[in-house]
Amino acid sequence: MTPEVALQKREQVIRDGYCVVDDILTEDFLEELREESERLIAGHEPPPDVRYQGQHVGVRGVDNLIIQKLLDWEPSRCALEQMGFGDFESTGSIIILTKDPEEPALYWHQDWMLWNDPMSCSPWPQTMFVSYYLTDTTVENGCLKVIPGTHLNRIPLHDQLVPAHEQGARFIEEDHPIMFSDHPDQVDVFVSAGALVLADARVLHSAHRNLTDQRRTLILAWHRRPMTIPDNWEGDIPEIIANRDPNQDYPGSRIPRELLK
């Protein structure tokens, strides 16, 4: 990326909660990841409570050389550095997520788990998911949907959602009128194979149903930075963060309460 493009991507993540970085994976490595993901999926029987995520295969880098190669992938590290996110580190594992033919949509949710912590108010991202797409995506095969800005601003949908994942959303019916709805502000995120999507864990996102006869696969990795003010942050610092007690124990919560305005 040029410095100008890197700045645009950084500003998009901060403003909208996500961005797409094209051509991160080489063709050879892309094919290697396709073959390895299919090998890991083969014979895997996902439990019924993750049917909206499709195949849901977790792999640690220390257990798989190809996955560790992805976690150490230099073009990804360079992209993060160029965008000013060089203090983000991988958690050391990935999840292979799919939409098989005719599989249902993924419900609306956000993935931040520390809504009692004042750091929830940070104008910069603290935790990001990094999704490597192994296939091109369209509405028809289950592309990502994002509602820009919802990592920083509450909308009515926040108060209508069933809490994410194991706290309720995995057990809803496929015809839930809110969880699988389209939203007037949503963006369908189309990507090409070999691209990655960076997204703030707090942003509301979901995915369309796969209406095609081909599997749509991505590899998701989580990246986190220290619970501190970034050294390179030049914007305003919310008072609640400036006064945050780093030694206090803030109970985890998936539910955005009063800290999301």
Outline the structure in words:
It is a single chain. Helices cover 19% and strands 21% of the residues. It has helices spanning 3-16, 27-41, 65-71, 74-82, 239-242, and strands at residues 18-21, 56-60, 89-99, 106-109, 127-133, 144-146, 187-189, 196-200, 205-207, 216-224. It has a single domain (3-226, 235-242), classed as q2cbj1_9rhob like domain (Jelly Rolls, Sandwich), CATH 2.60.120.620. The strands form two sheets. It has a six-stranded antiparallel sheet. Strands 4-9-6-7 form a four-stranded antiparallel sheet, with no helix packed on it. It starts with a helix and ends in a 19-residue tail after the last helix.
Summarize the topology.
Layout: H1 3-16, E1 18-21, H2 27-41, E2 56-60, H3 65-71, H4 74-82, E3 89-99, E4 106-109, E5 127-133, E6 144-146, E7 187-189, E8 196-200, E9 205-207, E10 216-224, H5 239-242
Antiparallel strand pairs: 1-8, 2-3, 3-10, 4-9, 5-8, 5-10, 6-7, 6-9
